[in-house]
Amino acid sequence: MNTMTYKGYTARIDFDERDSIFVGRVLGVRPIISFHGETVAELRAQFNAAVDDYLEDCAAQGIPPEKPASGNLMLRVPPEVHGAVLVAAQASGKSLNQWAAEVLRNAANH
Question: A Pfam family for this UniProt protein (predicted)?
Fold first, then answer.
């Protein structure tokens, strides 16, 4: 997956072969923030402008912009999974949070 990052927001980049343009969409937020460009430079400029517009719109409406990730993750798993990961974390000498962050980081990077 190709991505771009600006002001903490990440966008997925795809190529639309039919229209011969790059298309991007900001990930991790509920509002649909999309943009496109014919060149990488134009795509980057449009991405930056889309994020800036989103932040300005939020400010004008007096609402806080959504952040792509707060660092808090609520996760519900069956009790047997919870128990198994707790044992795995303790066996590796880590807290459950440390162990889970490492496992999730590794999964996201593959």
Answer: HicB
